[in-house]
Amino acid sequence: MKNEPVNTRFVPVYRDAGFDLQDAEKAAAAFRSELDPLHHPDDFIYSRYRNPTVVAAEEQLAEVEGSEWALLTESGMAAIDTVLSVFQWAGEDRPWLFFSEIYGGTNAFIDEVLIKRRGLDIRRFVTGGDRHDMTAFKRMLEEVHPDVVYFEAISNPMLIVADGKEIIRLAKEAGSVVIVDNTFATPWLWKPLKDGADVVIHSVTKYLAGHGNLTAGVVCGNDPDFMKDLIQYRKLTGHMLSPDDAARLGDYLRTFSLRIQQHCYNAGKVARELSRRPEVENVLYPGLETHPTHDEAVKLFGKRGFGGMVTFDMAGKNDEEKRLRRDRFIEAVSGHIPLVPTLGDTGTILLPIEPVWGDKYPAPGMIRLSVGIEPAGDLIRILRRGLEM
Ligand code: PLP
User: Fold this and answer.
1) How far apart are the C-alpha atoms of 62 and 218, rounded to whole Å?
2) Residues 299 and 240 occupy one common structural domain
3) Of 236, 253, 270, which residue is a domain's last?
4) Which ligand 1 atom sits closest to the C-alpha of 79?
5) I need a labelling partner for 23 at 20 to 30 A (CA). Which of 59, 63, 271, 345 fits?
6) 298 three-state secondary structure
7) Distance from Cα 103 to the centre of ligand 1, integer Å
8) Residue 368 falls within a domain, yes or no?
9) Beta carbons within 10 angstroms of residue 208's beta carbon
């Protein structure tokens, strides 16, 4: 049985490094259509350019995001590099504006690559509190006239929810391209393209893949010319996802909407339980009315939920006592809730804030929980036991 179609319901894992182009004429046609948004099955050339298994997962992602297209990369950081690099043109020197409350890796990429190596004029909109001040943002747009505005829907680890629709509206009015990192909110809670964003990126490693064992990123958008630029940049820099990982992602995406609903449900339960505990001083969860950006969250997410992340601070008379309570808790729950520096997995995991963020958030008792999809009752029992230690 040599390479005949079989009655499968799944897209095969095409591991070809290069594809069989058969003759000179077909080869010429394939190379001519290399960057075309719609890819003909005979036109695959080389897997670093495009691969049918990867395209199949991209089509699933475009459906989830409600976008015209989605392009996969081998990590979330590769998606960030890809999207930011295609907006960079020699001789263009308008500044770019980044919100300061974004993923630490992105902030380091800005400092180490965009500023130090590429010499870009980068400005930061510093939140300066526990919510984004829209009046200050508007003023900054007028002052800076940025070419690009970049923000995250839900920040990390303080879970500040952006007034996403308003940020996009103001930035578009100012003539900026708007990029949203929507990793924490996921397309379940918000689809920024529908509100006028130009591009959305995700660390697929998190909720979209969702099982803690796949590293990937995605860039989603609607503009076909922009898609061509991205395909070209990804091809030239090799930021491509492997077909094996794309096939696994395709399987994981089948359960995304179920998983994210359970993440949100469990996180709500956990946040309310933690708020009632005497061992806990403060709980940050956008679904709680006490959260500084609860109103923004309701405005942006409606009734769909408030995400799967909960950050909380241990009570204690002083820093030492808080640190001690934090460490005892981490040890007590470690059999069920390991300390793992990622998020969005099916199982609940935690991260202490101080050892990871250092001076940025000097909170010795603070822990970030990425709430999983276990039965909520089991999870609450484990947390209670941890707090009672
Ligand atoms: N964006 C956000 C919000 C993240 O949290 C992360 C990683 O933690 C990234 C981007 C980078 O993604 P990756 O680790 O898949 O490269």
Assistant:
1) 10
2) no
3) 253
4) 16
5) 59
6) helix
7) 7
8) yes
9) 28
Tokens describing residue 317: 């008379």
DSSP element (H, E) containing 64:
helix 52-65
What is the rounded distance in angstroms from the CA atom of residue 43 to the CA atom of residue 47?
11
Q: Does any domain span residue 136?
A: yes
* 221 and 302 belong to one structural domain: no
Q: What pLDDT shows up at residue 1? A: 63
Q: Which of 220, 253, 286 is the last residue of a domain?
A: 253
The single-letter DSSP state of residue 164 is H
- CA-nearest residue for atom 5, ligand 1, is 103
How does the average pLDDT of the chain come out, rounded?
Answer: 96
Global pTM reads 0.97
Question: What's the CATH number where 142 sits?
Answer: 3.40.640.10
| Tally of CB atoms within 10 A around 104 | 12
To test the pocket of ligand 1, the residue of 72, 74, 77 to mutate (highest count of ligand atoms within 8 Å of its CB) is 77
Q: By CB neighbour count within 10 A (0-12 exposed, 13-18 middle, 19+ buried), where does 370 fall?
A: buried
Residue 7 lies in a domain: no
Q: Which residue has the higher pLDDT, 34 or 173?
A: 173
Instruction: Evaluate if residue 160 carries a pLDDT over 70.
Output: yes
